[in-house]
Amino acid sequence: MKGTVRLLFQPAEEGGAGASHMIKEGALGDSEAIFGMHVDYQNPTGSIESRAGPVLAAVCFFAVKIEGKGGHGAAPHLNVDPIVASSFAILALQQLISREMDPLHSNVLSVTYFHGGTAMNIIPPFVEFGGTLRSLTTDGLQQLQRRVKE
């Protein structure tokens, strides 16, 4: 390879948008090509690993808030339970991978947090959950994003 090689170490990983700040401040200069890499704890220190095609999946995040009508657990018929609705929604999201995505392409949907309620006997007024979508292809990630929004 002829030319100058510039190594950039992005702060804040992807979620913190560290790279966008570096680009805005001119860290890339007049680069003709950019190759992204990621730290992998499985590789020995000081080594670099590469292969043709994608090595890691692209990622995006999703967050959901389901609002119901909270109330006492002894009178569920007077409430709209967002925990039950969220449970159905999470199961439906999991089926996006197994029933709508090409099984020959790598796609992952992970629900990584679920928050709702603070008392054992009260149905909460809302539930929040969210997680990540990952795909080795741009089309796969866009399809997952579209379906989660639907």
TrEMBL record:
Alphabetical keyword list: Hydrolase
SUPFAM superfamilies: Bacterial exopeptidase dimerisation domain, Zn-dependent exopeptidases
Residues of the Peptidase M20 dimerisation domain: 62-149
Pfam family, one: M20_dimer
Keyword Hydrolase among UniProt keywords: yes
Superkingdom: Eukaryota
InterPro entries named in the record: Amidohydrolase, Bact_exopeptidase_dim_dom, Peptidase_M20_dimer
Hydrolase is among the record's keywords: yes
GO MF, any single term: hydrolase activity
Family named by the database record: Belongs to the peptidase M20 family.
Name this polypeptide is given: Iaa-amino acid hydrolase ilr1-like
Organism, as annotated: Thalictrum thalictroides (Rue-anemone)
